[in-house]
Structure formats: C-alpha cells, structure tokens
C-alpha cells in the first residue's frame, strides 16, 4: 500500500425497521409515563373519576352473577311435589310412581312415605313431642316428580296433568315464581348493560378531555414537529400511550374497589347465609376476568386518546402551498 493511500472507513449500518419501530414505541411509552408522573394529582384525579365510573357497572355485574348463582339451586330444582290423598296406600303409590316414570316428559320420580316425612319434619323442626301427641301420622305420601328437559312450559303442562290425577290431593309447582325471578334477573342484566355503556362513554370522555388539555399545552411543540415533517403517527403515539396509562390505572383502581367491597361484605353475607342454613359465598372476579377488565379499560383509554388526537391533527395539519 502506498503512503498516499487512505483506508476507507465503512459507514455504520442503519438500524433495521423493526428496531426503529420498537425504539419509537419505547420512547413514546417512556415519554407518556413521564408526563403522567410529573402531574401526580391531576393524574390521580383522572384515574379516580374513571375508576369509580367503571367500578359501578362492574360491581353491579358481579352482584347479578351472584344472584344468578344464588338462585341457581332454585332454578335447577324443578321438582313437582305431588301430595297424594291419605287413603292411597304404599302399594298404590308405588304403582303410580312406576306409571309416571314411563312418561316421556318425566325424568325421575321419588317416593317419600309418611314415615320418612315425619322423621324429616321431626329433625328439622324440633317438634317431636307435639308429633307424638297427635297419635297418628297426619302426613300423606309424597311423590317428587322431576321433569325432563329444560322447557318451563312443558313443566307447567306436566303439573296440570298431575293435578288431574285422581290420587293427587295437592300439587306444588313454583313455575310462576321462577318465571318472575328470570324476568327480574333479565331486567337487572339489561340495567347493567345500559350503565356499562353510559359510564364507559363517560370514562372515554374523561380520557379524551385530559389528553386534549395535554395536547393544548404542547401545541407549539407539535406545530414545530409538523413543520419538520414528523408523521401523524409519530406525533400521536405518546398521547395514545398516555390514554393507555390512564385506562390501566382506572382498571386497577376499579378492581381494587371491587375487591375491597367484596372483602367488606363477605363476613356479614356468610353470617346471613348461615342463619338460613345455606353455604352461599360471595363470588368475585377470577384472574381471567380481571385481565379482561384491565384489557377493556386500557382499550377504552386508547380509544379516547386516539379520537382526540386524530381530531387535533386533522385541524392543525399544515396545508400545502
């Protein structure tokens, strides 16, 4: 190599497109987090408003799920109680039960003799001495008929058929009560859906207004970036992440409020259930549903920020001359 020859220095390799994309999103994420932390009181106020607004329909939804779970045993217990006349002996009751089992709309038939009924009443009521004073057993034979299928109208028809039996003295079927319970649960679920939409829209507007105020405070900076040729995506990205942080914080707060309410209500509800001889326990959100709630609140914050930034960028985009 001659003395006058210089060695060429290789140009540094340009970063790949995925690396640039990752760096830009990481910068937007860190920048938006910094903006949130620099205004702690304003951030906490926004998150608190959103969290309370989202906790209300979420709590009502959990209440409806628990009511449906509590009423599940009643809903599933579709037995029809057929009290036979006192002159129907055990043989006739057994023959009638066999006839009913052969019906296509009957899943099972259980016979409860007067002796079994008295024993159960004696154990549950504590009135054994009063029963002994009666001398004879006043209780009739009971047939517990379980309908087949899930058609409530079919249960009603079966109950009407059982009432027409000559051996039947009284038929108990709570179809009307169960139908009313279904109607109330359906109405409550619709109320939850309406509140979820209204309060979710309110939370979206809170995020949008907060991001709008932040955009207004950086209007000159955004104008300079637009003049330098920055894309709308580059300008929008930090504000989108700002909405994501607001949504995430609101979701965490809403879940915390629900957990606190459940903890406060668990003990008195357990005492109330125990007084009725029930083992019912309050059921909250599991890990999967909590993750879905967080994802929904993050998406809500992202949508609110995107709507506001999109409108602002369309209004301030420089016009070509």
UniProtKB/TrEMBL annotation:
It is a multi-pass membrane protein. InterPro entries: ABC3_permease_C, FtsX, FtsX_ECD, FtsX_proteobact-type. It holds the Pfam family FtsX_ECD. Residues 195-305 form the ABC3 transporter permease C-terminal domain. It is found in: Cell inner membrane. GO terms for biological process: cell division. Keywords: Cell cycle, Cell division, Cell inner membrane, Cell membrane, Membrane, Transmembrane, Transmembrane helix. Residues 79-167 form the FtsX extracellular domain. The chain crosses the membrane at residues 41-64, 191-211, 239-265, 285-305. Forms a membrane-associated complex with FtsE. Part of the ABC transporter FtsEX involved in cellular division. PANTHER family: CELL DIVISION PROTEIN FTSX. Belongs to the ABC-4 integral membrane protein family. FtsX subfamily. This is Cell division protein FtsX. It comes from Pseudoxanthomonas daejeonensis.
